[in-house]
Predict the structure of LTD domain-containing protein.
Amino acid sequence: MERGAAMADLLLLAGIIIVLGIAWVQTGGPGKEASSFFSAGAPIAGTLSPLEWSTGDGTEPQEKGQTVDEETVSLLEQKRIEAQSEGVASPYKGIVEITPSTAGPRNTNPQEEYLTLHVRSSATNAIDLTGWTLESMLSGKKVKIPKASTVSTSGTVNVEGPLVAKPDEEIILTTGRSPVGHSFKVNKCTGYFEQFQDFTPRLDEVCPSPENELIFADNPYQQFGNECLDYIEDMPACRMQVNAVPPQFPGICQYFIVEEINYTRCIYRHRSDADFFSLEWRVYLAHDKELWRSKREIIRLLDNNGRVVDVFSY
């Protein structure tokens, strides 16, 4: 009896092994991937993250419970475009640069949307930027850098000529139209423009003070009287008189306040000063709509021969 029972047990065990073997073959057998033996929730060391997977057919990879972030994919695509946007390098590459600030180009108001170019101090000569092109690699919009007035004059037609920038100078390129009707180079008197117009960024208001202008008075300023001189000393820089002058002031002092403290007279007196010009240009592209995307943009600067000077992305 014991021998028969043992034989029955062996036959049962053999049957179980045969059934398991058949099931193993039907589920993949020796060709089955090793990854199926691991828990789905436990990643295998060294495997790629979902963003690195490739299906081989150009479709987006998918995994249960995971999706590729669309914004991340867009940024990756942007960088790919940027890498392909270099083109033929200009001899001015590394000499003229787009300043890497996103505050200006992100603005959606064309009067406040701007880019800044900088001519590096290592430049050996002044560079004529007139006719150079700014181009969006994503929208395809293009615009040429216009001419500009070296000295902006009030009350007369300004003659605009080539925009020739010297080493270490900056060119602020605003998308919209000039508040004074033309592009210009900033000088020690242009702060007066801020009194009646709005500029983005604001113009520096660092004009010669009215008190310091007394040395240019047609009459000895000692004849103005102490009360009027005190008034002049308290006047802010870069502001012409718009309110009535106190009537008790001597006529020669009233004339000085009203007629001598303004942009035109400032230009007349200081145009020959060694420090008359600043290192900044204000250039207007005269567009009524924004040029640059508020986010995820690639902008190229091209010289007159279409060669790439610089590429800027954000």
About this structure: The first helix runs from residue 2 to 26. The two ends are 88 Å apart (CA to CA).
